[in-house]
Design brief:
Blueprint (H helix, E strand, L loop, with lengths): L2 H17 L1 E3 H8 L3 H11 L5 E4 L2 E4 L7 H6 L3 H12 L7 E4 L3 H9 L7 E4 L2 H7 L6 E3 L15 H8 L3 E6 L3 E2 L4 E4 L2 H12 L1 E8 L10 E5 L5 E4 L8 H7 L3 E3 H4 L1
Parallel strand pairs: 4-5, 4-7, 5-6, 7-10, 10-12, 12-13
Antiparallel strand pairs: 1-3, 2-3, 8-9, 9-11
GO molecular function, one term: DNA-binding transcription factor activity
Keywords: DNA-binding, Repressor, Transcription, Transcription regulation
Protein name: Glycerol-3-phosphate regulon repressor
Length: about 260
């Protein structure tokens, strides 16, 4: 089998694991192939116990369908707490900030619970709820449909939404980081929303754990070396040491700093 097919099928499984399910049309658009090509991939991928087809979608099998967002939020808790604490230390009372989707960004929001008079622009409903406990905060979210189970807003409307605001800080994660530092996402709309967010902020803050280095996703947007501050739990594996060198004092390893 061609390596391109193997990589695409591996990525399809990863997308389904992340999101719980995805349509054939969305996969075709994501990978730039025909729906017939995706259907052939699904014939192979669904020949087992992990995935199944349902009404033009591929989904996790019933017995394996835990809430993907809650699964991610419950992993590497020590590392995420350290990352969140380091990121929150950058944010003063009264700041205006963007906060993106993702479980690590949510950890940062929770670490900001003692901050007051924040203006938070976010497409992450869980972030909005976490910061709504402080009544001096102002929280701005887009309209539209909430994506479940992740409890966030995605799509072109979100790109336009972030384009209407400016902030002092942008706090965001990424699905993966390529060999040359590419910031990778599962959807082009997520790439455009993240790009608009950090371009409209005075200071960009990328929050990731070391597992994101080398993790594949199909959509590319910017590189890690363009970011003002990168906060990671621990140093990545040796093949990515050149990126650490390029970042210099712009990267913080939160577990070492504690």
């Amino acid at each position: 089998m061609a390596s391109k097919k193997i990589r695409r099928r591996d990525l399809i499984q990863q997308v389904v694991q992340e999101q719980g399910g995805v349509s054939v049309g969305a996969l075709a658009e994501m990978f730039g192939v025909s729906m017939q090509t995706i259907r052939r991939d699904l014939d192979i991928l669904c020949d087992g116990d992990n995935l199944h087809r349902s009404h033009g979608r591929i989904e996790l099998a019933e017995g394996r369908r835990n809430t993907p967002f809650d699964q991610r939020a419950g992993t590497n808790l020590v590392g995420k707490r350290a990352i969140a604490s380091a990121a929150a230390a950058l944010i003063p009372n009264g700041a205006t900030l963007f906060i993106s989707i993702g479980s690590t960004a949510l950890s940062v929001a929770r670490a900001l619970h003692r901050r007051k008079e924040l203006t938070v622009v976010t497409n992450n409903l869980s972030v909005a709820m976490a910061l709504s406990e402080e009544i001096s905060n102002r929280i701005i979210v887009p309209g539209g449909e909430i994506r479940l189970p992740d409890r966030d807003f995605v799509g072109e409307e979100v790109v336009e939404f972030f384009g209407r605001y400016r902030a002092e800080y942008a706090i965001f994660g990424t699905a993966g980081i390529g060999a040359e530092g590419e910031l990778l996402e599962f959807h082009e709309a997520e790439v455009r929303a993240t790009y608009r967010m950090w371009r409209n902020a005075q200071t960009s803050v990328l929050v990731i754990d070391r597992s994101k280095f080398g993790r594949l996703a199909p959509a590319v947007g910017g590189t890690i070396t363009q970011i003002d501050h990168v906060i990671c739990d621990r140093p990545p594996a040796e093949p990515f040491s050149h990126l650490v060198e390029q970042l210099g004092d712009r990267i913080t390893f939160a577990e070492e700093a504690e």
